[in-house]
Amino acid sequence: MGLPLRDLTHPTELPWSALRGRLLAVDGNNMLYQFLATIRQRDGQPFTDRAGRPTSHLIGLLYRTTSWLEEGIRPVWVFDGKPPDLKAGTLRTRFESKERAQAAWQEALAAGDLETARRKAAQTSRLTRAMVEEAQRLLSDLGLPSIQAPSEGEAQGARMAAEGVVWGTASEDYDSLLFGTPRLVRGLGSRQPHDQGRAAHLIERDALLSELGLSQEELILVGLLIGTDFNDGAAGYGPKKALKLVQQHRGWEATLRTAGLDPAQLEPVASIFRSPEVAVGPLPPFGPPDEEALAHLLVEEHDFSEDRLRAALARLHRRPVPVPSAPAAPGHQTVLDGFGPEGA
DNA sequence: CACATCGA
DNA sequence: TCGATGTGG
Description:
It is a single chain. The protein is of the alpha/beta class. It folds into 2 domains: 212 residues, 3-Layer(aba) Sandwich (Rossmann fold), CATH 3.40.50; 63 residues, Orthogonal Bundle (DNA polymerase, domain 1), CATH 1.10.150. It is built from 14 helices and 7 strands. Strands 1-7-6-5-2-3-4 form a 7-stranded mixed β-sheet, sandwiched between helices. The chain starts with 11 loop residues before the first strand and ends in a 27-residue tail after the last helix. The C terminus is likely disordered.
């Protein structure tokens, strides 16, 4: 998933407390996928309700968002819409690797190798439309906004961050940097002991660009060379070699040709990053949780323990008074310019 | 993922 | 009291 930009970045540590009162566009598909991969039993079986429907995504969503809210982090979940046609190859490759993982999972189980079984099972995770809809229902019952992007969620989040509607984007993938997010927060899930100051990692686009001596256009060029969800990349080019080539500033076409790529063919890929399809409209409001609806969804429909739900909800009542997070450009009418009323 | 439980 | 391990759904 995503593109391997990690080696080019130098993230700074970002304590959760630094995010208090801030709005974050959360990559919903990315997060839910992580939950499906991680929240499993020893043999790799996902958690299910009594009807056999998976619940791992709901477990992760409930606990993680209540943790965030308790710290005053204000998540705006953004979900993928229709993938660009150019993503078809990536989607097919992912499907095939899931099939292989499925077989490897069964093999490991038969061999009694639980550790391998769990790892392979994680790779079989599939996020269905139904799971996303349930997650959106859960968010709505929690009183949290969610946004359905027309296409890539990372693009939608990046635009919202660039417009100052949210402070930054949260994802484990690096795609939103190519989409122009000013701030990417990674590791918002890796929790440490509750008291011992949890920390995420922050990548700031401006700092990244000046460190690498690149423009935003050139960062996209690096992406095209190493490969994105929408193109294969140049043979023999990884992050290091791609960066080195682009740093020679030979221009768009010469750079691609040097790496054996066809500039004309890559133009549509570049335009996905430069001017992606994004939604325009008011930011849905935050509101108070609907505890009855939550009990119905989680306890009655999906067999959650009532005690655990209550414990999770108790953390919402402990949440700090929200500090208004300043939009970057007050007074300017831009996409998603609305700020709903604060919840209780 | 977060929480409960257990043994050093 | 704390890391390791188990449980929840």
